[in-house]
Batch of 2 targets.
Target 1
Amino acid sequence: MSLNEVYSVLLKKKKESLDLLFEFLKIPSIAAQNLGEKASTNFLERIFGEAGFNCSTFETNGFAVFTAELNTDSDKTITFYDHYDVQPVNNELWESPPFEPTIRDGKIFARGVADNKGEIICRLQAIKAYRDVFGKIPVNIKFILEGEEEIGSLNLGYFVENNKEFVLGTDLCIWEFGGKDTEGIQNIYLGVKGCLYLELKTDTIGIDVHSGRTQFVDNAAYELTWALAVLKDRNDKILVPGFYDNIPEPTEEELLIIDNFNLKEEEMKKTYGIDKIRLGLSGVELKRKFFLEPTINICGVWSGYQGLGSKTIVPHEAFAKVDCRLVPGQNAKDIVEKIRKFWDNNGFSHIEITEWDGYEAVKTLPTNPLAQAVIQTVLEVSGHDPIVWPLAGGSGPMYLFPGVPCISIGTSNSQSNAHAPNENIYIDDWIEGMKTIATLIHE
Amino acid sequence: MSLNEVYSVLLKKKKESLDLLFEFLKIPSIAAQNLGEKASTNFLERIFGEAGFNCSTFETNGFAVFTAELNTDSDKTITFYDHYDVQPVNNELWESPPFEPTIRDGKIFARGVADNKGEIICRLQAIKAYRDVFGKIPVNIKFILEGEEEIGSLNLGYFVENNKEFVLGTDLCIWEFGGKDTEGIQNIYLGVKGCLYLELKTDTIGIDVHSGRTQFVDNAAYELTWALAVLKDRNDKILVPGFYDNIPEPTEEELLIIDNFNLKEEEMKKTYGIDKIRLGLSGVELKRKFFLEPTINICGVWSGYQGLGSKTIVPHEAFAKVDCRLVPGQNAKDIVEKIRKFWDNNGFSHIEITEWDGYEAVKTLPTNPLAQAVIQTVLEVSGHDPIVWPLAGGSGPMYLFPGVPCISIGTSNSQSNAHAPNENIYIDDWIEGMKTIATLIHE
């Protein structure tokens, strides 16, 4: 009995794994369009049930959360967080139909194969193969598979509230995303940033006014412009009092990891079509800013006349969408209150925050033994030191698992087109992903 | 022979005048839709020809400029500036078809009746009636009737360049607009503000970027926000160096007129749906600001995601439309150069001014004897002291008539709906307008 035998089984059962994955990929499960909930949970119930898991479907106001548990009487538990919903598709832009999985050039093309159905089958097949060889899994296994990740995990909090023991009774949670970069090196994420999303509106006048009368009325577009301009200066220093409160100083170890992180500035510049990074930053300074500092960003803004030619008006209303990426220590509710207070104190009470939504940052320290175990496993299986991100640039609902080390590893690649047409993964990466999971369980 | 006899003729010929006006109003002459140029100039040629004018049609790249001249061997000349084009229509919003003039409740309803075909017929009929009674007009008369006022007088400058003697060889130009306010008092405008219209764009990144990477790229929306925010402070002080250069100090007399001007703040607040005037200003302070200070105004702004829900991106491009109302002494070209330089010096070279268009403010001092004559005439005919605006809030191409005193009087009312559905004038106001013109010629 050895891991090599498990690897052999994984290769031998490649066809079975592919069949299972293809069956899953054929279900159009799009929460945004209210499609495929029941078909997905039925499918999951069957395949996890056949693998001996205790399955359960937790109903919510939206798509159900499916859970599966394999109790092996161990004192350790690993939980896998994934989701069975996918992004909507625009059929015309796909080379092969998004819900008819197709293999070309060693890749599987289908909606959801990278994000995130591929991971679910990958993880299940690894566990099954390990048990085939060793007879028993050395840890307890749990799966939490939600159906609304692509629309903001609307009911995951409700699920967690009602299943605290199940969610928090675990030693490690393997999160949904991760994969290989352009050089084929596996990227591991030890956390996610928090996010605060704000929708803003101001309605300063009853009607649009002829701009010959601009002296008499508050221009909604200008008021919003000033309100956004005072939130941060052009060096990205956020001017909202207390915005940086409670952010802990980084440890020496954390700084070491950040300073040595390979950020690939040149690749980034090429991708984004820019000559230099914002503010001319590079190297350590840029990396510390990226990993350690919160941000305020305008996602969209609109007001007044946007058509051809000229229209000389004072617009009566203006809108914006703003997001803040938060770092550990910050709290979304607290931040939105601070922005409100700052505007109120500076004559911007009329800027309405019409909607807000937010969640906190979460990270696992690289010194955590379980983080080290995951890093070591990836090194062993892939033959390369992985790139370890202390925090991903993006955000996710990891904060719903407080106290649980959450780490993202995955089987996608830099050209996987998650959320985009022609989503794909390499079959070889997928099999390697299974080996990684099997090895992780073993160790 | 007396003016009263002229007034009688005007009343007697009311039907002839209405028939002429209705014929004119039935021509859909919409420069924006390339409609009715030839029909209009043919019509004008006929009616001015029949009245003994020397007519001429000056071709341009757009709609022709029609001129008519009545040389009476006087050493004085009055010129009437008007236009034969009208605003586009939305038929559905009209109670009667816009190009089928209709009389209801003492008003004529038709597109262009207020702006500006009514004035053309009014002025021509007044001159004809005067000559019927007195046999001769005591001044030379000129008409300059352009066909593109509603789309920005695109070729009027070209016409003026090629007809300098005709345009500038006049003592007084009666401009196109003016009329009665809500209380039935005639408003006279002694000038117009200048205008600078800017279209702005910035394109900071090659593509929209995930907002988890906002540290690396210049957010186009934020860059434009900051660029607009630095143009003026919230007290409306414009921060562009040199913006206020060359604006002459107001004379004592000018201040007296401004300070005594009846601005009707309460009516304005009601119309605009506001509780208080911007910055809490009122009275003299507000009036001096309105008449004497230039403005910067955002007409429209847009960037990034404007749809439902959240999309977390760094927008790669952003747009705005901005107008400045200029006062006498300022020059549009000079101002756009100063804005450019200010932005260049403050790290906003990337804000492109993709288009700009502008013209200068023009005013006639109220002490000018011809202005006094017009004011006196209106008082005599209407029986009320007119309200005299030193400058209109809006702008127009009066600057093309340098050195010529240009004064606006007209026959519309505060509910005339120029540019809007159900455009109308009162027949009585129109006849009174004819009397005013006849009286002005006489004196």
Note: The mean pLDDT of chain B is 95.
Target 2
Amino acid sequence: MEKNISEIEKEFLEYVKKMGAYNEALGLIYWDLRTGAPREGHVQRSEVIGVLQSEVFKMSVSDEMEAYIEKLSGNVPGSVTNKVLEECKKNFERNRKIPESLFREYVVLQARAESIWEEAKKASDFEMFRPYLEKLVAIQKQFIEYWGYTGNPYNSLLDMYEPGITVEVLDDVFAKLRDKIVPLVSEIAKSGKKPETGFLFHHFPKESQREFSLEALKQIGYNFNAGRLDETVHPFATGLNPGDVRVTTNYDENDFRTAVFGTIHEGGHALYEQNISKELIGTPLCSGTSMGIHESQSLFYENFVGRSLGFWKNNLDLLKKYADGQFDGISIEDFYRAINESKPSYIRIEADELTYPLHIIIRYEIEKGLFNNEIEVKELPEVWNRKYEQYLGIRPRNDAEGVLQDVHWSGGSFGYFPSYALGYMYAAQFMNTLKKEMPEYARLLETGEYLPIKEWFTKHVHFFGKMKKPLEILVDATGEGLNPDYLIEYLYEKYSGVYCLNID
Amino acid sequence: MEKNISEIEKEFLEYVKKMGAYNEALGLIYWDLRTGAPREGHVQRSEVIGVLQSEVFKMSVSDEMEAYIEKLSGNVPGSVTNKVLEECKKNFERNRKIPESLFREYVVLQARAESIWEEAKKASDFEMFRPYLEKLVAIQKQFIEYWGYTGNPYNSLLDMYEPGITVEVLDDVFAKLRDKIVPLVSEIAKSGKKPETGFLFHHFPKESQREFSLEALKQIGYNFNAGRLDETVHPFATGLNPGDVRVTTNYDENDFRTAVFGTIHEGGHALYEQNISKELIGTPLCSGTSMGIHESQSLFYENFVGRSLGFWKNNLDLLKKYADGQFDGISIEDFYRAINESKPSYIRIEADELTYPLHIIIRYEIEKGLFNNEIEVKELPEVWNRKYEQYLGIRPRNDAEGVLQDVHWSGGSFGYFPSYALGYMYAAQFMNTLKKEMPEYARLLETGEYLPIKEWFTKHVHFFGKMKKPLEILVDATGEGLNPDYLIEYLYEKYSGVYCLNID
């Protein structure tokens, strides 16, 4: 007897629930590996990861999955099931279009390239890494042909991380950003002004940094019954399910900013995952909708809250309480200027708010060039250094602080970098609307009442998980499409304040 | 084209490796749940457990598994594959013989019974729990009929936890134990002697207890590159793989013995799992061979090492260093007598070394009676209390401190209790051989050189995983079958020393 549609739908939802369960187990395994799993167990744990991952992959491209998509698409009433189908179909098509032998070659190459990249970075020698990167780019170009694309081939990669965002959009917004940020950066350099920052770098015991970080997480509305804070080397947040969203941080005892701003950043990611609608649990929709929207949440809290004057008006005394006297006698204004010093630097992840977008734009321009056959891999060190000189006024002295600094390309992650800058623009655009809808916004920052802010984001962003695409979220929340002006305005206002510049 | 045997063998080993991977993921999930997983994520985490467990179960009884067993049994050369087949066949037959509907009924009942037991224990009301226990026993009796048995029906249950051990064996050894321990217990009571114990119960900060516990683990040879110590409510050790064997403990700040002896106990389990042959990783043979042999390792370290005079000659000063002065002026002899006080008590898990076996024997006699239709569930409180009075000279005042104290029956674990006493007898028998083969044993205890002891156990016990059955291990290591005399001798010697009795 033929099964009816609602029986098939039920089976399909069980099927994706199983994939979700494997992914949740994988999430816990990764968290554990990065927060203290005993070293000698790692090799066998990798086997476990391999088994679970390949099971999820097989399920995503199976004939069963194909049959569910065919039978159910357009035939079920529920909006959740339809979105789940859409999501599964996208993955199915992406993964099925690649010939298995090419995919296997790629997976082996990825693993090898990452360890070669590590060595090359240590030796600061791009030539070591070059042949692997060439092969990675070549295979990605083949993937793009299999996947197909509209407009620019690079769009096919962007679509993976930020559906709806294309070269056509990015060329425009990144040009605007670049043309406004570059002069501001050079204006600051010309002013010769430099905030006093020496007091930042005193010894601040790890345990006390942790105490303050916990307080900061609590303030922004992180739910400790649905999460925990642990220590790791490379900080991250991970949403295993909305009731279990973990934050990690690392501590530099001679620079408290690493842990404090790092924790608030990851806390922003965590607020997103903690507040997704419970209705989506067990489906692939139960996570942030895109890298960019995710980053909008972390950057909003890290920069717009954590690096704001208001936040520190409310928290500097608390920080002083935990510190060993390093901030005694430091005024709130001096503290604010110190933590917001802007100066061109080589390393993206150490960049300040103002110069950060330029790091991203450089990578975007290079990736676009690569996938449009306008730049060859062998030219990368030279192109990289030239762009740093042009946009930031500094020229990396070697490959380690230049083209080899980031892990992304070694793992084949092309098209990912733009999300960081997109997130920043989304965040500024959200803030603009938030301030309009919440006239007491500035006061809330100073009094530490951050919950209404979290609630606004939950209502407009968090709740939907992957039920809405990134631009849908943005337009529904702010009433317009991506507009870089809000970020530009914010940066001009903030940095002319920090550096007492007269710019209009 | 037909696959040849070695291809099928390879496939089969991949198949069991996959089951092992799911089990390892489950192990990590359980560890995490019991050491700090955020509360609000538990419900969804249970779903993940359900998915993984049902997958492992399905794989263990699948037609594929059946085909592997049929095609490979007796047709492969390797001793490992043959043992894996044997293990899989045993599970397959156990699980396939039960009708699915009965098994489902049982699983639902188990979950329900456990929460009812919790309530019943709180209310100290056996009648609340009785109907569930009756049903559990009734279904287990049906299982026994499906599984079949030799000799006594209760053997079918014993075989799950301690293959090779039967009612015929236990009746004999437990009678000997009981007939020797009961008079010794009453001798001690009659002597009227009671060691001074007041100094044990001072405030000992948790952090310091942890430091001492870590030192103790290190001394016995626990490898911290392949493990870690965490806090939990109900302590356990878990071997995810030999490179990742975790120990947990809990701290009572007014009784350091809970953490210290608990950690050493779990450390003994952990030494077993850390030292299984690497060759067995990824197979179902990579864990302790039975509950009883496992318990022999934990009890050996907890009692024969941790509660010995030698261990404290070497460690009392260290304990004094961590404690807040509570042991100042206490002699090693007084300390030793205090931690080895013996007195009849109601609660098994709080019992001392001497009375502990009686708690087990009572449960054994009751279980045997239940499954031989000589005792009815409704009679349990009365039977229980009568036996406590008869063997220990005390009568529980209510069900909570009597028949309802242990969780085991609520989960349907009948046949499990005897392992605890078996482990104790195995341990004493191992020690007897160890002392003969290592004449310096007593000196090693006093000087803290415990590694040769660990190495002896690794060579004779740990290394084999499930490659050998429990009695095979015992006979190969000690040259004889189970002999309760060694435990009896040990107890007489120890307790006539602690209580200065003149017994021969």
Note: The longest strand of chain B covers residues 244-249.
